[in-house]
Amino acid sequence: MTLFDLAKKNVARNLSRYALYVGTTIFSIIIYFTFATLKHSDEISGMAETSGQIRSLMSASTFILLVFVALFIAYSNAFFLKGRKREVGLYLLLGVRKKQIGTLLLFENLVIGAVSLLIGIGLGLLGSNALLQLLLRLMNSDLSIGFTVSTSALIETTLVFVAIFLFTSFQGYRVIYRFKLIELFHADQKGEDVPEASPFMALLGVLVLGAAYWLALQDLATSPLWGYLTAAMPLLIIGLTIVGSGLLFHSVLIFILGRLKANERWAWRRLNLLTTSQLLYRIRGNAKTLTLISIISSTAITAGGAIFSVYYYAEQQVTSYAPYTFAWQGETRDIDADVLHQTTVLEKTVRVAGEMGEREYGVIDESTFRDVASNLGWDTPETLASDQVYLIDPFYDERFSENVTAVELDGVTHEVSSRYEETPLNVMTFGGLLLVTPDDVFTALPGEALAYQAVSVADYKEQTALSESLSIEANFSSATALYSESMAVHGALLFVGSFLGLVFLVATGSIIYFKTMTEAEEDRAKYAVLRKVGISKRDVKRTIRQQIAVVFLAPFSLGIVHASVALVAFSRLLAMDFTVPVLVWMGVYSAIYALYYVLTVRRFTKQVI
Q: How far is CA 252 from CA 57, 204, 280, 291, in A?
C-alpha cells in the first residue's frame, strides 16, 4: 500500500470529522467562483451605468474573501493537526521516518482540497447562475443572463484555491520537524497561555470597552474628539474594541466564573461546580479564538445590517428627493402613460444673505405649493401672511445647518412661518432650497420666472422607456432612473454583503465546532467517570448544553453588542431609523448560528456518551 493509498483511507475513515470543514470550504469556493464570474461577466459589462461599480465591488469582495478563506483554512488545518499529534507520535514510535509522515499528511490535505475544489467548482457552475439571477433581482434589473461558464473565473478560482491548499498542506511538516516525540504525545494537554484573571484586569476590560462605545457614539459633526483625531478616530475605536474584547475573555469572564465557583450555594447545586470548572478551562484555553470570533461576528453583522438597512429604505430615499416621477424645465409634453398629476411650476431664483454667507433659493408662489402639496397628500398649511414665507430645506440638520428664521426679499424682511424638511418637488430639477411666498409677493419679485413641468405617473418604477425619451429635456430629473440606479448599486452591495457575511458566519461557527469537538476527545474519559459514579445521562447532557451554550453565546453576544453600537452610530450619522432591517438581519444571523449550536451539542454528546 502506497502513502497515497493510505492517505485516501485516512480521509475516508475521518470523513465525518472533516465533513463540516469540507462543507464550509466548498461553500467558500462557490461564493468566490460566483464573485469571479460577476467580475468577468460580459453581460454585466453591458450595463454601462453600473458595470464599473460592480466590477470594482466584486474585485474588492473576491480579495476580502480570499484573505478570509485562506486564514480560515489554515486555522482549521491547525486544529486537525493538533488533534492528530498523538497519531503522528505513534508513527514515529513505530519507526516511520518524518519525511514519510509529512508526505502522508500532505497527501491527505491535497485529497481533501482536491475533493473540495472539484465539488465546489461543480456546484459553482450550477449555482453561480442562480446567484446571478438573484443579484439581478436585487438590482431590479431586467437583464437576461442565460447559463454561462466563465473560463476566466474558472481558472482564477482553481489557481487561488490550489495555492491555498498547497500552502496548508505543508503545515504538516511543521508538526513533525518542530516538536519532539514526547511533546507530540502530550500535545492535547496543552492550552493557550493567558494571564490569570484579576479584579483589576476585569475592571480594565469593562472600562476599555466602555471607552470604545462612548467614542463610537460621539456625534461626528459636533464632537471635538472627531475634529481633533479625524481619520485616526475609527482606528482608535477598533483598537479599543479588540483590546476590550480580549480582556473580557481573558479576565472578565474568568473572574465571573471564579466568583461563581467560590459561591458554595450555587456551586454545589447539581453539576454546577463541574460546569463552572470546565468552562474556566474552555474560556482560558480558547480566549484568543473567542475574541477573534466576536470581532468577526460584529464586523459581519455591522456591515450586513448597514447594507440591508440602506437597501431597505432605498425606495423611500428616492421618493423623498424625487416625489414627482419626472420634472424638467420647459413646455408640457404628451405623456404616454397613466398620468396621476401634472403641474406647471413657475420658479424664480433669489440670493439671500445669511450668517454663513449668501445662499441661493428657488422661489415658488403659495398657490403652486398648495397644488403640489395636495398632489402628494400633504396636510394643507395655513395661509401665509404678506410678510411670511415657508422654507423648504430637505437637507436640514440641526447639528450644522443654519437656522434661518427670516429672509430679505426685494428689500422686505419676511418671517419664516414654517420650515419643511422634505421637498414637494424634485431636488435635481428645482434645487434643494425653496422659498414659498404669497402669490402677490412672488409676482412682484424681480427676475424672470422659468417654467417647469412636474409629472407623476402610475407604476413609476416601470417607466424606463418613457424616462429615456424625456431625458433630452433641460434640467430633467427622473424618479424612475434614480430608483433604477439606486437599486443597482444597493442591490449589488446587499448581494455581496449578505454572502460575505454568510461565509464569515459559517466559518466562525465551524471554528467553534472544531474547537469543541477537539476537546470532546479529551473530555470523553471525564464524562465516563461521571457515568460510573452514578450521574444520570440527563444531568450529563444538561452540563454539556450549558457549557457549549456559553462558548457559543459569549462571543456571539459580544459581537451583537459591538454591532449594535456601531449601527446606532451609523444610523445617527445618516439620520435614519435602522431598527426594523437590523432586527431582521440579526434574526437571520442568529437563527443560522443557533443551528451550529444544536449541531455541536448533538455531535459532542454523541462523542462523549
A: 39, 9, 11, 12
Residue 226's Cα: distance from chain center in Å? 24
In angstroms, the CA 435 to CA 437 distance is: 6
Name the CA dihedral angle for 404, 410, 413, 419, rounded to a multiple of 10 degrees.
Answer: -30
d(CA 305, CA 314): 14
Nearest to 117 by CA among 33, 183, 34: 33
When pLDDT is cut at 50, 70 and 90, the band that residue 452 belongs to is very high
Rounded to whole angstroms, the Cα distance separating 234 from 221 reads 14
Q: Residue 388 to residues 122, 351, 370, 398: CA-CA distances in angstroms?
A: 70, 17, 15, 22
- If DSSP codes are grouped into helix, strand and coil, which group holds residue 227? helix
User: Are 435 and 407 in contact, with CB atoms under 8 Å apart?
Assistant: yes
Residue count of the chain, please give it.
Answer: 609
Question: In degrees rounded to 5, what are phi and psi of residue 459?
Answer: 55, 55
User: Any residues with CB less than 8 A from the CB of 608 and at least 6 apart, and which?
Assistant: 520, 523, 524, 527, 528, 544
- Over residues 30-74, the pLDDT tens digits come to 888 888 887 776 666 555 455 566 667 777 888 888 888 888 887
pLDDT at 575: 74
Q: Which three cell numbers stand for residue 352?
A: 439671500
Query: Of the ranges 85-94, 309-318, 552-561, 583-592, which one carries the lowest mean pLDDT score?
Result: 85-94
Please say whether the beta carbons of 424 and 452 come within 8 A: no
Which residues are within 8 A (CB) of 265 and not within 5 positions of it... i.e. 6 or more apart?
none
In the chain, count of helices (H) and strands (E)? 24, 9
> Would the pLDDT of 193 be above 70?
no
Strands 388-392 and 434-437, how do they pair? Answer: antiparallel
Residue 52 pLDDT: 61
Grid cell locating 107:
497527501
- What gap in Å lies between CA 298 and CA 563, rounded to an integer? 5
